[in-house]
Amino acid sequence: MLVIFLFAIDATIVSTSMPTIVARLGGLELYGWVFSIYMLTSALSTPVFGKLADLFSRRRLMLAGIAVFVVGSTLCGMAWSMKALVVFRAIQGLGGGAIYALSFIIAGVLYPPDRRARVQGVISGIWGVSSVLGPLAGGLIVEHASWRWVFFVNLPIAALSVALIATGLREAEAEHRVPKLDLAGTAALLAALMLMFYALSHGAHNRRPLNPEVLSLLGLSAVFLTAFYLIERRAEEPVIPLDLFPIPLYRVSSAVAALAAMGVFGAISYLPLYLQGVTGLAASRAGAVLLVLSLGWTVGSLIADPVIRRGGYRFAAAAGMASMALGYSVFVFAASAGGVPAVVAGGCLIGVGMGMANLTSLVAAQSAVPMRRIGVATSTIMLFRTFGGAFCISLMGTVLLDRMQHGLQMLDGASDLPGSLRGRIADPQYLLEPAARATIPASLLPKLTSLLADALWYAFLVGLLLMIAGLAASLCMQSRAPHGPTGRDSGRAIV
Predict the structure, then answer these.
(1) Which end of the chain is flanked by fewer CB atoms within 10 Å, N or C?
(2) pTM above 0.70, yes or no
(3) Residues with Cβ within 8 Å of residue 341, at least 6 apart in sequence
(4) Neighbours of 177 (CB within 10 A)
């Protein structure tokens, strides 16, 4: 739980501290990369450490992951420029992805299937705690101390985690064999993921999302994925065993996990744009709405266990996806009339639904596979979540920017603006800056706000359709795990 807290709070504490960090280090053009590179390297390390967890000591891997995270945090705190900070955040992300995956893997091994949902629901609840403490801690640190302590504060938490894991976690004797690592498959997968996530991140914030650069990167990623598939078919110890996907419960759980992540990351990314750009809320109040979503996620994680116990996996996953679909329905059909309260209600529904669907898909996937595959099964589910989030952000961003550009061509008075200003107002983020809004003629600003609301309506409609697809997928899930060899079949129990 401490390790998950360490990983979760890092994102929120850094986000509130970044304006101060940029003011000290400069390099505003690299602002977004401080977050993107962390997400990218976390996604890259997750499947690798998941596979290693099935082959080697999970305890030692966790300690190694914490060590990498601590090294990255220390270097981030010592950064002398934004370029250096981006590089060090990449190192921190490698450790972060490792400890995030291993936390749920170890919990899945420690507890039998009938207790996993309860324990992992409590662990997932850490996200709610971090969403409250992170921004508060970040603000206090930059106000009363050096911004470098935003990263150095990780060190004592990591030290306590290491002490508890080193003294309290014991593994049974492992079998004496040296597995043949799938280095070629790992390299092909990492190359494919790196190209894919970079292309999706680049496309989400580009005025021409489907430009030749993005398409070429996605094409090259597809080539590496094809090579990865061919390698995995022959590998002795594949990094992602292909025989996982014929298992119906695992396959459907992967789809539900990806679609649920699409819903929550789409809301987190574009709700602030609606609240600030359309309703005119200040950034702090928009952040409070996202806090409601995060707390709803915690509530959904905690209630998932009793729902699974009474109704089974299918009912719990379907209830979660239905809640997310209902939340997006509020954005599509009631946000304009209900205003901020309607948006808050929709965000709460999405948060609760994500908590339920997220935990149910994870526990179902772990229950569907034998213990010797629990590491790679868990990490692959997490990889699908990350991909789903990145894909939805890019897809909704593409729809949003396309509608904005189309609307500007039809807007009266836009053609009379200087070319530089006309280009800037095509970017929705431009409408969030008070100084930028002041440069827009008063007669044109309400029209641009209405145009942004219309473009966001189409983006949220895409999100609603994805949630309906997620609900359909969840209805295909088995209610209970299939009978078969589970639990202690790996030869390496954790006690």
Answers:
(1) C
(2) yes
(3) none
(4) 7
